[in-house]
Structures are given as structure tokens and as C-alpha cells.
Amino acid sequence: MALSTQRASAFHPSAHQSAPTQWNYDVFLSFRGVDTRNSFVSHLYYELQHRGIKTFKDDPKLERGKTISLELLKAIQESRLAIVVLSPNYASSSGCLDELTKILQCMKSNGTVLPVFYNVDPSVVRKQSSSFAGAFAEHEKRFREDIEKVKR
């Protein structure tokens, strides 16, 4: 993975201004584990860490299927930038979508969101077609009492 030194320095607070004290991570990685954990994301994480970019990547042992953990919420809030790896099964995980909602809320005021389209066309995400259409239809059935959650 090629990441130029010039670009890597953009992540370091000393390259520009001092970072606010609430930032404990330069990057928060959001991804669907079954699609990318042991391939693209593991390589990306390694390269970021290797270049001194402090990166949060969730532990595969974290409890799944529940609401977003406090540890993940805190890591999102304490990150300067979020890289969201959108893969074919990303939208099928309500946890990933909860995480994305929190990322968008936090980064709106104090950060940047960088989407990476991994084996999925950006138009599929934008138009919510293909695997994304099916995933959102399932979420609408599952959360019919809380349809606002799906809209968010």
C-alpha cells in the first residue's frame, strides 16, 4: 500500500497545529469484518500504524449484534478522521450502520470522513441498490417500530 510521506504527515498534529486534547486517535476504521478484516483492512491498518498514524480498529472479540459499544463510541469521538470501508455486506450490519451514524454526527463538526469503496460501486451505495437495497429492506422489517433508526 503506497501512502506518501507528505500525505502521512497530514495526519500528524505537529505537521499543522496542535490537536485538541480529546483526540486519542488520528484515524478510526469502520468496516464490515467478514468482508475486509483479514484482507484490505488488515493491510491498511498495518500501513497506517507503520507510518506512525495512531489508528483505532475494533477487536474481533467485541460483542456483536448488540448496540454499538461504549468503547467504539468513545474511539469515534476521539478520532480526527474516519475511514469508512464500504463493502458489499457493510449495510447488512446494523452495528456498522449505527457506527456510521455516530461517525457522521461526530465528524460533522470536528473531523473528516473518507469513504473507501471496496468491491462495491459508489452508485450502489448512493442509490441503495443491489446488496444495499436488500440490506435496507431487511432493516426496515426488523426495525419497523423504530423506522427513524433506519432513516438515520
UniProtKB/TrEMBL annotation:
PROSITE patterns for this protein: TIR
Read off the InterPro entries from this record: TIR_dom (IPR000157), Toll_tir_struct_dom_sf (IPR035897)
Question: What keywords are annotated for this sequence in UniProt?
Answer: NAD
Under the heading Pfam families, the entry gives: TIR
Q: Does the keyword Protease apply?
A: no
PANTHER family listed in its UniProt record: TMV RESISTANCE PROTEIN N-LIKE, TOLL-INTERLEUKIN-RESISTANCE (TIR) DOMAIN FAMILY PROTEIN
Q: What is this protein called?
A: TMV resistance protein N-like
Query: Which organism does this record belong to?
Result: Prunus avium
